[in-house]
Fold these 4 entries.
Entry 1:
Amino acid sequence: MATMKDVARLAGVSTSTVSHVINNNRYVSDRVKNKVNAAIEELNYAPSALARSLKIKQTKTIGMLVTTSDNSFYSEVVRGVERSCYERGYSLILCNTEGSASRMIRSMETLLQRRVDGLLIMCSEAHRLSDDVFRRYPLVPMVIMDWSPFESSNDIIKDNSLQGGEMATNYLIGRGFRKIACITGPKDKTLACLRLAGYRKAMQDAGLDIPAGYEIYSDFEFAGGLSSMQQLLQLPEPPEAVFAGNDAMAIGAYQALYQAGLSVPDDISIIGYDDIAITSYLIPPLTTIHQPKDELGKLAIDSLLYRMGNPESEPKELVLTPKLIERSSVAKR
């Protein structure tokens, strides 16, 4: 394999001149550039990314931790992050934590050992970590997407889940529904509790009771939505409408109604949360609360790049505003 010294020898120049041509960081005459480029082509020389990163103290890579899920929300966010990385000349290294605290720590260690320039964290909140994990790598810039899994001062970007839950429930109330249930996520996830709190606030403000059994903690997955909807159908007075804490559970609820010989929205209306891509193709298309996933990915990268260039700046908390997407899964009474 050819080295930079081989290129310099063939072109009749110094290795520093070859480096300047490759990195375009200093003036080199066109005549010399042509000689160097011809030597590179003849020798089929490929610059060493590792050597370059050691010299400039940058790897042009960003690490991202995300948990596994059947919910395509995560993959849609990752797609936005990857696109933003590419547009800014960075590569993305993705690690899946599988919802495991030990795997999260191991993956983080791996990314930091690979000298990533920055970290994005978006994985299971059920496992909170302390700052001890990062004390060996105190200078790595980090942005938390949606919540903070450890006690630390980092930039945080999150959805206004309280507002979104209230917005979803108020929409159902505005359509004439009074018996409204809520399927939310796990109790130990902040966004699940906030969306439930938004539901409760809207119901309370409207003077509506929440009957026993109308609030169900689930898991943010398709199967959880199915089993939760089945529980609601077993109640003496099933709800007229359901606010599902994310679209995956709303889709599971669709399936439960189909299995029971019922339909959306004729028998029960459903509203979801996230606005994942498949929701507009359901029958009927799902009314939902939109999370700006592309904006989340872009904002995460922009925030991380700013943090990398300004490590001493004060940590910021950025809150994205949810938006109602009205389709056909909610009837009007």
Entry 2:
Amino acid sequence: MLSRRAMLAGGLLGGLGLRAARADVPAIRLGSLPFGTSTWEAAVIKARGLDTANGFQLDAVKLAGNDAARISFIGGQVDTIIGDLLWAARLGNDGQAVRFIPYSTSEGAVMVPPDSPIKSLKDLDGKRFGVAGGPLDKNWLLLRAQARDAAGIDLERATEIAYGAPPLITLKLEQGALDAALTYWTYCARLEAKGFRRLVGAEDIMHALGVAGDVSLIGYLFQDATVKEKPEAVAGFARASRSAKDMLAADPSTWEIVRPLMAAENDATFEALKRDFLAGIPRRTVAAERTDAEKLYAVMSRLGGARLVGKGAGLPPDLYYDNGRDG
């Protein structure tokens, strides 16, 4: 029989061997916000073992907010975050190469109360209008373009605008302090569950501006150096992300993993969030995404100017990550 000391030594060595084996698997550090939907996807990847099956280890790093996420990404404390296409393009055009993996086509919408007399963009004239984000928010720029082209109204001049964080803008709309609000899709879903109505969605605006399909304006961002340093792990991450989305779309039981993270206080809210998440799963080729994104970039560049896009005249040539080419 082995002595107790030998058994302990064997256990220690076994543990070290296990840790060494895990250390050989490259890690992808995902920076995620407390209530960001990337936590939903990450939970599925971990619960279903999609990271190890694709040759990497997913490490979720909790971050306090968007500013913290950007700082951590630029500083290399995390390998990837969910980020804005425009910000990624600006980094690339300024010399810091970033790769973009489309994450979701769900964006946001203009929401109005259930009994609102507002039926069209023209009806926003003179109204109290909330905008989640700031004057350079991409959805706001696209809405301004659509309102001008389709309704002949300059929303920046014709409405009483209040900018703010999405939770605050949504709360003010619920309280009646605003007549209408442009907010992010997760807040739209929660408002719809309470009977609020969509006036126009960001996807509808994009189509009206001439794009052929739904466009992902948010995606996973990787620094080009990370892609070159651990190409197989990044390719594995892209595959795992797609597999997690496919599981959520095809197997309702997968949502049992996600629901505790959704802060959905009732079934109506859960179903609305689930519906809009699934509707936003990207289904198009990288080439198709880029073609339409270029059109929207031109619109936003014209309205936002250098403050928004920096010195870039278009999307950087290698902005989009192509798993087939890069992985």
Entry 3:
Amino acid sequence: MSLQHLDSNEFDEIIYDNAESSLVIFSRESCSVCQGVVPILEDLKSKYDGKYNFYYVDVEEQKNLFQRFSLKGVPQILFFKDGEYQGKLAGHVEEDAVEEKIVEVFEE
């Protein structure tokens, strides 16, 4: 189950206009660390299906989104709830760390 790719228009609509509770990974195809993190999110997407949304932003194609958040490096997983930025995880992360952040952001 792959993650839906977002462009800047879709990002604004989903995250801000619809205020969906979402995880968005900022990544690039050529990033070896990213290739280890994306499958973790794909697994979690099926676990949390219907509760939270999981999206992918390719920083090569969407440089403006990457710059909007002043991100340095990839992968970066940003968390949004009710249209508000709630924090991020950067670099190589384990599934447990992502799940802890999901609970912290969305379930408390």
Entry 4:
Amino acid sequence: MDQINAIGRRKAAIARVYMKEGSGKITINKRDIAVYFPSSILRFIVKQPLEKLEVVDKYDININLRGGGFKGQSEAARLGIARALIKVNPEDKAVLRAAGFVTRDPRVVERKKPGQPKARKRFQFSKR
């Protein structure tokens, strides 16, 4: 198996995932996953599709992450990994979809409206 490419997006984050057979090393922006995501919860989110299919130690994954915050980046990486795993073995798609790893979460920040301090917040109304 040669290198497999996939892309994952969430909020403003974009993850380009490059996967090849190996020992289970995950590198994000040329840094180890433990260095890039000090939080164990975010590392868990990234590894969820691999753990679901029990292939944590089977692939070396290199991820380029841009934009967004920690949470969006981790979920973008999760989607990218899930898509790469589906390219490797299309029969796994049903399992990953049932776990909710294949669907792109469409929720993004709502834009700020003119004449308001935020997207939905209004300035205090004064009758007189």
